[in-house]
């Protein structure tokens, strides 16, 4: 990093925040609304009254091979890859690492990681982000979007002055969940270490001490859930005076979780001429309004249609069953699939996740549960065991349905059907993930009971749009409605999925039930 162009640190008076040396203070973890009242003492910064030092944010130098692409070639590539761009002067895509704008040390890490080519969203997203313009990206989890904003962030940071004692980050990534924040931080560490770029992760449900220490040592990149970040800002531990590259990851999910007030409070602490990138899996009117409020003349890239849909690489199976049938149906599926296949089973409640995990472990399956009531250490452990394949069954609430970066999930089971079709799509999207070699095939099995009647017709549309089978009972129920009675005692039977192994160990509560028995 060189030593020119950054915000003038003395421009912002120190009384724009409340100082508190009590490390254990603040709001702590508040479930989905982590830090719901944090930041209430932060004063809005009157940016119009400040003189800000200019900084550089356009670092894109187009490779001659990219420049040589004709408009028709660009159009054909975008159509084949379902890329839709909106805005003026959209850069051409970068189709290979050889013509990418990244320095040799970053490219070396990319090649060692086994990546053969950029994903579609990376090809189009990299030049857009490096151009210094505000960007809206609409892409599903698993599309490679994280590297679409992380690698350009490294280039941006290199061009800024080194951090000085008391400085906050240069790049801030806001994330809806601890799991997604941790996964993003892993990518930052993976690709940033060679550049000497430090990153840290801030989230509720974990002690503040280690997070405070990492901030005080200095971190060019901070990935944070909104509540914990506001807690630490409120305590005066860090500040956002140096942020010139802001990312809002999974913006739709953050709004779903009620984080809009926190996001607005945070953005008010960041200079208005920053570069802002907003990523979202969907594009509802609430996210559009957020983009209008926080982005300046953005360019937009969509992967696939703006209509939310399941990738073609997921086989969707809906089984119309009663509540009492779901456990045996689940056991039958697990007994029939390959023992090495990773499986995520979604339940609607924390208690339901624990109860099902106990049943599966008693029946000999090495299942582990993850939800918001688990301690952070246990949640981290479960994710690591699942990623490493030492545990191949994860029972989860929706806390893990978005942002969980685990390759090769072969089966998703919706034990409890979600409240809305959007959540259904996000859940089943865990299977059939994008990999370096293309898409992996996946299967999603969903148990549909009469309690989910309100989404019947929407579900049928999703199935038909993806050219999937619609069970006759589901169709009948769509037209008979609640007055048509409940489903028959026996749901439709589906063909084999492939024995399942046993073994492993638990931790606490449901995760501590001995495999094959116990109370």
From TrEMBL:
Positions occupied by motif Q motif: 95-123
Entry superkingdom: Eukaryota
Pfam annotation, one family: DEAD
GO molecular function: ATP binding; hydrolase activity; nucleic acid binding; RNA helicase activity
EC number: 3.6.4.13
SMART domains per the UniProt record, alphabetical: DEXDc, HELICc
Protein name, entry field: RNA helicase
Species, as recorded: Blastocystis sp. subtype 1 (strain ATCC 50177 / NandII)
């Amino acid at each position: 990093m060189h030593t020119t162009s950054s915000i003038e640190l003395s421009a912002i008076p120190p009384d724009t925040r409340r100082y508190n040396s009590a490390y254990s203070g603040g709001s702590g973890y508040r479930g989905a609304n982590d830090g719901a009242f944090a930041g209430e003492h932060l004063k809005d910064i009157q940016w119009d009254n400040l003189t800000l030092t200019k900084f550089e944010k356009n670092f894109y130098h187009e490779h001659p091979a990219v420049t040589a692409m004709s408009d028709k070639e660009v159009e054909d590539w975008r159509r084949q890859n379902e890329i839709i761009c909106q805005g003026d002067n959209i850069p051409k895509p970068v189709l290979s690492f050889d013509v990418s704008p990244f320095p040799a040390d970053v490219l070396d890490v990319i090649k060692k990681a086994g990546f053969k080519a950029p994903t579609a969203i990376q090809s189009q997203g990299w030049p857009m982000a490096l151009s210094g313009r505000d960007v809206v990206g609409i892409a599903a989890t698993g599309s490679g979007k994280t590297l679409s904003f992380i690698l350009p962030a490294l280039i941006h940071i290199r061009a800024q002055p080194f951090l000085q004692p008391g400085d906050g980050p240069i790049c801030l990534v806001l994330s809806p969940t601890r799991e997604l924040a941790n996964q993003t931080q892993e990518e930052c560490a993976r690709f940033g270490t060679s550049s000497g770029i430090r990153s840290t992760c801030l989230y509720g449900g974990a002690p503040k001490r280690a997070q405070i220490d990492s901030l005080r040592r200095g971190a060019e990149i901070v990935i944070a859930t909104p509540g914990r970040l506001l807690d630490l800002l409120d305590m005066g531990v860090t500040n956002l005076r140096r942020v010139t590259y802001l990312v809002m990851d999974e913006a739709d999910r953050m709004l779903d979780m009620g984080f809009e007030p926190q996001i607005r409070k945070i953005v008010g602490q960041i200079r208005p001429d920053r570069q802002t990138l907003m990523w979202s899996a969907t594009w509802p009117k609430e996210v559009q309004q957020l983009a209008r409020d926080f982005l300046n003349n953005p360019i937009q890239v969509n992967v696939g249609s703006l209509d939310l849909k399941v990738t073609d690489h997921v086989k969707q199976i809906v089984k119309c069953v009663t509540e009492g049938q779901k456990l045996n149906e689940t056991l039958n599926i697990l007994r029939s699939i390959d023992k090495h296949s990773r499986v995520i089973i979604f339940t609607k409640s924390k208690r339901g996740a624990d109860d099902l995990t106990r049943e599966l472990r008693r029946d000999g399956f090495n299942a582990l549960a993850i939800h918001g009531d688990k301690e952070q250490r246990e949640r981290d452990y479960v994710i690591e065991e699942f990623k490493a394949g030492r545990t191949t069954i994860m029972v989860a609430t929706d806390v893990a349905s978005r942002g969980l970066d685990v390759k090769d999930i072969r089966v998703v089971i919706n034990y409890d059907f979600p409240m809305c079709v959007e959540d259904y799509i996000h859940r089943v999207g865990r299977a059939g993930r994008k990999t370096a070699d293309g898409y992996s095939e996946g299967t999603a099995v969903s148990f549909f009971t009469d309690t989910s009647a309100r989404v019947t017709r929407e579900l049928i549309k999703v199935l038909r749009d993806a050219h999937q089978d619609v069970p006759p009972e589901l169709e009948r129920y769509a037209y008979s409605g609640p007055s048509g009675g409940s489903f028959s005692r026996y749901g439709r039977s589906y063909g084999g999925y492939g024995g399942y192994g046993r073994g492993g160990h638990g931790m606490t509560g449901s995760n501590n039930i001995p495999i094959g028995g116990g109370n």
